[in-house]
Specification:
Number of domains of chain B: 2
CATH topology of the largest domain in chain A: Rossmann fold
Strand content of chain A: 25-35%
Number of strands of chain A: 19
CATH class of the largest domain in chain B: Alpha Beta
Oligomer: heterodimer
Helix content of chain B: 25-40%
Shape of chain B: globular
Largest sheet of chain B: 7 strands, mixed
CATH superfamily of the largest domain in chain B: Succinyl-CoA synthetase domains
Largest sheet of chain A: 7 strands, antiparallel
Strand content of chain B: 15-25%
Distance between the termini of chain A: 35 Å
Number of domains of chain A: 3
Number of helices of chain B: 10
Radius of gyration of chain B: 19 Å
Strand order of the largest sheet of chain B: 3-4-2-1-5-6-7
Order of helices and strands of chain A: EHEEEHEEEEEHEHHEEEHEEHEHEHEHEH
CATH architecture of the largest domain in chain B: 3-Layer(aba) Sandwich
Number of strands of chain B: 14
CATH topology of the largest domain in chain B: Rossmann fold
CATH superfamily of the largest domain in chain A: Succinyl-CoA synthetase domains
CATH class of the largest domain in chain A: Alpha Beta
Shape of chain A: elongated
CATH architecture of the largest domain in chain A: 3-Layer(aba) Sandwich
Chain lengths: ~375, ~300
Amino acid sequence: MDYLEIEGKAQLRRFGIPTNDSILLDGDEIPEGIHFPCVLKGQILAGHRGQHGAVKVVKSEEELRETKKAIEQISINGHVMEGVIACNFLPIAEEYYLGLTLDVKNRAMMLLFTPFGGMEIEDLAENEPEKLLKFDCTGGFDAEAFRTVAAKFNLAEARMNQVITFAEKLTVACFELDATTIEINPLAVLEDGSLMAIDSKLVIDDNSLYRQGDYTLLPKTAQKKSKQEEDAKAHDLTYIELDPEGDIGTMAGGAGIGMATMDTIRHYGGRVNNFLDLGGGVTAEKTYQAMRILLQNKETDYILVNVFGGINNCADMAEGIARAYTELGIKKPVIVKSRGFNQEQGWEIYEKLGFAQTKYGTTDEAVQQLMKLKGGGTENEHSN
Amino acid sequence: MSILIDQNTSMLMIGITGKQGRIHCKRTVESGAKLLAGVAPGKGGQEVEGVPVFETVAQARETFPQITAGMLIVPRQFVKDAALQALKEGIRLLVIITEFVPVMDALQIVRAANECGAKVIGPNTIGVISPGKSKLGIMPDYIYGKGHIGIISRSGTLTHETASNLTFKGFGLSTCVGIGGDSIIGMNHADVLELMAADDDTDAVVMIGEIGGTSEEMAAAKIKELGLKKPVFAYIAGMYAPENKRMGHAGAIVSGGMGTVKSKIAALESAGVTVCPTLGKLVEAIDTYNRKSNGRLQSLEPQID
């Protein structure tokens, strides 16, 4: 789960990390405590805010109002602005970068630090990797080890101690918050020599949300969801809209087989309307809901079901699908590939419904069967 | 020979008295695998399908010192403590079936396993099967025929799909390893590949990958490093998946541009791997190779040794 700058900063302060004040500009009134010049910053779940004009210095109330309105209109990569904050204009001497992130390749929690901040950190990593320190913190932050490897930056001892204190606190915050990314860019060195986080980026591992609090401060504009997506979510199903002109609806028991089904249909020249993943722990009720959603989707003319009885059970799944098909009275050609635990019972149920089946064949064969039914469709070698 | 497990592997199941534990205890016993003990705190002294239940791994191993392999199937909030305890008390091959395990917990488990020289498979996996010999996982064993093809896959359902495709088309499998679908897992493609490279029973390897992460790229590097002569066939799922919106700068830096289907295919092809656009095509490629090389990839009569 991604958090906005203002939400991330609130969490940093909980762990004793100094941040600048952020005042939310809510409505037309200008809140107390704002001194000019100040910095307006758009709150959005996307990066490169500066480049998109979502960070601006303003010098008067009039300018603040105009700029706030302009920032509110900005969207970046499909994300919309969730709000605008005002921060005091600070006398900054230098900019550092400090962050922790999950390093999947090395199976580690990696701390990244550079005193050469104030630029795109990806560019620095790419062009001058020697200037970016990567430090393994999986077992906690080892201050003396950090001091040794960071010596190459020739920071004054007092400054190094400040950085170490900051990094220690950030590491604790990272572990306490179950963060997969916690980043301060820039970490400002103010003219009085103190360090301050003047931005924050916080991403919390979705698998840990059950034991984390909800750190939301601003209500997020819900990403626009289709009727089917809302419907599926209410029944704990994953539904993703794909090709709006696709005439094939898909149901799969797992993300891997869902993706493979989609790839295979595309390979043979078909157009996939949606990706519906049942997930694990599937009941007859869940497949009933999934089948209902696919049947009621007016955009699709065909349905391909590709499931396994591993952690799930083929007979239960077939029962739910059959109930939806007979109850709703919406008839569409359905092709099923279902194998695994209780496969024979499942096959029998589908046979009674008159569904076309691939019992021992591959997903390719099920898709080819479907394409034949559609009349046409040849292998699309361009997709190789 | 087969990798990780064989007909002599003695195993225990942690979480044997839960709903999923009971189902898979029954299926494991029916498969003929040597499931000797179960572990469930507070349930010591009970039995599930004739398998005795112990309070701790240590107690189970007092009675059955030959057990060094275990399957963990407990709710995610208990996974970390249960896994760390199992490693501490002598489990050297631990399969973690549970999905949605917090990343920080997985990191600690993987680190602890490395420190004590144990192997962890998962989390979020179907486990391991050496058809006709043993299984330490939750796969339906009758769609896994016995033979000489190894499978390494991140996705559980795609392991089932690939195994059943091959089995139904008359091919056989040596060992199939679901490495798990999470970002932080124990053994990755490269680790398993290294074992299969040295395994007399494995003549060809199938690698199933998917978008994200770097496991496939690392496997490609491993193939080059080993100078692997055995043929490797691969499929990467998610060619047409809608692009994920990503926010953190830091994540993109560490992965260094790896993780797209294109980068994975390029890396694997440069290592001499046959990358197939669909899983059906993968079976065809194996069939062609087997005919040409007069190989022994056909199915052997499935039987429990």
